[in-house]
Recover the amino acids of this structure.
């Protein structure tokens, strides 16, 4: 379908006011509610493209090093620590993709690729070392009551001794928040194993986006008065979910990690849909829209265009995210 035809269809939808889209949302959610009873998004596999292709095999292999660890959990930690940047250095001198402090590296770094060197900057060593360190901690707290993965993460943040003394995740807000944040991010990197719960704020986000139909696109636009209320693609999706109390990152490739990832045949209105120049790498995402059903999204496409309805089935379609409040809160502030 051409863009012109898509706009004609969009115009018909606009002419129907909110009724068409809102009825679609309600109808789909009623059906979805009848299907969802024991849904889970956990898995030992990885969501398509969530981990950059250069690191996917490492994360998949080493993420299964011990029962307390999964590839998605390992990916969540790495993303939280470095945003997949193998050269980053923190103010505390944590280094590389896994953000090891040199002293910790000296004790826990391993030669992951067997080249005879333990290089803190080499993801082929740092990613296996992160997994190995996690599993060492899991072993240290294996006799502690509670969820073994939660206790492992708590030990990573606060130390195994504190977890042992507390008999589980200690009552330290930083540690409790760390565990919650990583477990929420884990859902964004995991390949779903069954249908996902719908996002309850979806209808409000769609209503906001629909109210902006016909608004001219502005690169970098966030809808401010100084910008004439104009948006770019991720500015629109960010504003739409801000309207319902969910804070998303500013750029599209970071918004991808704000929740689990439904397959194309499980899309529901309100899901964010993404498009990438590299269909194996979420960091190459260049466009995002809000799915409204029937194979269409509301999006701010490009300079010279307006916010409109467009089809999602395009050659660079990458995938989708079902935004959750916990998923959005878990995202690192800088990646």
């Amino acid at each position: 379908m051409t863009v012109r035809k898509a706009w004609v269809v969009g115009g018909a939808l606009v002419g129907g006011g909110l009724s068409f889209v809102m009825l679609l949302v309600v109808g789909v959610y009623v059906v979805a509610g009848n299907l969802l009873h024991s849904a889970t998004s956990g898995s030992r596999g990885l969501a398509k493209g969530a981990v950059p292709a250069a690191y996917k095999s490492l994360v998949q292999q080493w993420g299964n090093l011990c029962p307390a660890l999964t590839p998605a959990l390992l990916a969540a930690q790495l993303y939280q620590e470095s945003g997949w940047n193998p050269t980053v250095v923190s103010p505390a001198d944590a280094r590389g993709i896994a953000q090891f402090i040199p002293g910790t590296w000296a004790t826990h770094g391993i030669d992951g690729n067997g080249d005879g060197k333990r290089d803190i900057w080499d993801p082929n060593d740092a990613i296996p070392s992160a997994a190995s360190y996690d599993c060492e901690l899991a072993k240290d707290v294996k006799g502690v009551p509670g969820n073994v993965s939660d206790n492992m993460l708590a030990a990573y943040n606060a130390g195994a001794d504190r977890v042992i003394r507390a008999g589980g995740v200690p009552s330290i807000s930083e540690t409790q928040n760390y565990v919650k944040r990583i477990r929420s991010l884990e859902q964004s990197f995991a390949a779903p194993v069954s249908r996902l719960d719908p996002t309850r704020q979806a209808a409000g986000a769609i209503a906001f986006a629909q109210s902006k139909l016909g608004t001219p696109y502005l690169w970098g636009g966030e809808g401010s008065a100084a910008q004439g209320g104009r948006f770019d693609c991720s500015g629109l999706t960010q504003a739409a979910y801000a309207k319902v109390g969910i804070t998303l990152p500013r750029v599209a490739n970071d918004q991808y990690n704000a929740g689990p990832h439904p397959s194309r045949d499980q899309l529901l209105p309100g899901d964010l849909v993404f498009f990438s120049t590299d269909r194996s790498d979420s960091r190459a995402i260049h466009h995002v829209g809000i799915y409204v059903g029937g194979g269409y999204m509301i999006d701010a496409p490009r300079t010279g265009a307006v916010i409109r309805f467009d089809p999602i089935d395009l050659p660079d379609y990458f995938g989708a995210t079902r935004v959750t409040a916990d998923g959005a809160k878990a995202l690192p502030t800088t990646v």
In short: The CA atoms of residues 117 and 291 lie 48 Å apart. Confidence is low (pLDDT under 50) at residues 1-20, 22-43.
